[in-house]
Write a structure and sequence with these properties.
zinc transport; three-stranded antiparallel β-sheet; alpha/beta; binds adenosine-5'-triphosphate; nucleotide-binding; ATP binding; ATP-binding; globular; AAA+_ATPase; 9 helices
Amino acid sequence: MIALKGAGIRRGERWIFRGLDLSLAPGRCVAVLGPNGRGKTTLIKAVTGLDKLDEGTRTAPPLVAYVPQVIAPLPYRALDVVVMARARSLGLFGTPRRADYDIARAALARIGAEAFTEQRLDRLSGGERQLVLLARALATQSPVLVLDEPASALDLANQSRLVAVLRDLRAAGEHAILFSTHLPTHALEVADEALLLMGPEDQRQGPVDAVMSESNLSALYGTPLRRRQVAIEGHGLVETIIPLH
Ligand SMILES: Nc1ncnc2c1ncn2[C@@H]1O[C@H](COP(=O)(O)OP(=O)(O)OP(=O)(O)O)[C@@H](O)[C@H]1O
């Protein structure tokens, strides 16, 4: 459904990534991991088509739903921001119909953000805004969801909600999902595969269990990390990543 082949993006003389292959099939979820400045946002934007490749090829459907890390705090109701996702199906001078508002409300409900429906975006917190953006992405009804660090502004309760929403979306199998994250545990909890940006010309993609080994993760972040399973009553074995300071 989405594929990059031999993809490269350069900033001046410096390659941010090069020779990158990525494939994202329907119903699959891939997490992108890498330290600050390694190129996660650049890659995400390349996948959406917002950034053009300097090398390689991109195959994608016409509409890719994209959740950026931040959005300007627009002075509009959350519902109106979410309904903007329907613009593509309205034509040039079309206005949203009842069915579009129904889709927008359903998207807000699906992520448990109905409470923000009538609130203005510029009066919501950064984390609340991010949930509204996720609803907007769902309201596009695109089969591909691309999210840039969707948990970055979320508190623990909302991170937990986000993980539950992403797991639910993955289980429903309607979307191909790509998300970047600084939280490797989210990749373990949600994704089928991880793509590790080890270096500009070194990327490793594979099933999360295999590719997110202690040695790969420690090399990725340049700090010793351990993976452990913790038994938690009612939840079974939970995977966790522990940095060794
Ligand atoms: N428009 C630009 N012009 C020049 N360099 C850029 C531009 N945008 C990003 N970069 C550089 O490209 C590199 C990758 O940036 P990117 O934002 O993709 O990293 P990231 O992995 O998403 O980082 P973070 O985890 O901090 O959000 C960085 O070194 C950044 O300085």
